[in-house]
What we know:
With 209 residues, the protein is an alpha/beta fold. It folds into two domains: 3-121, Response regulator (Rossmann fold); 127-209, 3-Layer(aba) Sandwich (Rossmann fold). 51% of the residues lie in helices and 14% in strands. The protein is built from ten helices and six strands; from the N terminus they run βαβαβαβαβαβααααα. It has helices at residues 12-23, 37-47, 63-73, 87-95, 108-119, 127-134, 147-157, 162-169, 173-187, 192-201; strands at 3-8, 28-34, 51-54, 77-82, 100-103, 124-125. Helix 3 links the parallel strand 3 (51-54) and strand 4. The longest helix is centred in the C-terminal third of the chain and has 15 residues, at 173-187. It is globular and about 45 Å long. The two termini are 29 Å apart.
Amino acid sequence: MSVRVLLADDHPVVRAGLRDMLSVDPGIEVVGECSDGAEATRMAAELRPDLVLMDLRMPGTDGVVATAKIVAAGSAKVLVLTTYDSDRDILRAIEAGAAGYLLKDTPRDQLAQAVVAAARGDTVLAPPIAARLVTRVREPRTPALTAREVEVLGLVAKGLSNPDIAASLGIGEATVKTHLLRSYEKLGVRDRTSAVVTALAKGVLVSPG
Length: 209
């Protein structure tokens, strides 16, 4: 089945370019376009796409607010696609529930792969974004994750699903989930994307680069 995508960007030329880039992939269907966060929230609720490809800075309701509303409503997963790579923008988007963060210079093939990966629940971070998080000043206390918890988070950062992680490490899928839940608690987060971002920022993980 195709991944159904809603495009949210205030620039018509950018939306047209994204539509052309994604439409050539038989596994992706662009089901709608919108130009601001409020419209994105409404259309996501109506169309129920698999993924919203979300710009951050738009007039009116911005992409971060829209992301939080869409994720909270369970309307779709959200993948940020923007030109902005400041620490503040990245963390706000991830904290709002975005499944990943890409920059607009991402090549077409990589963008299409990221759309499919984010739609199925994988964490997607552009290498420059991961690098920025790694170079952030580390907080005095690093969460005391076990070696196995770090290993599991490292595989999550590479985009592996829970079944793939279980197979790779030779453990049960339930054990993978247990390690992730314990990691969430120690890192003070609620999902796998936030766990990876926080672990990178605190130096618990190195960039999957």
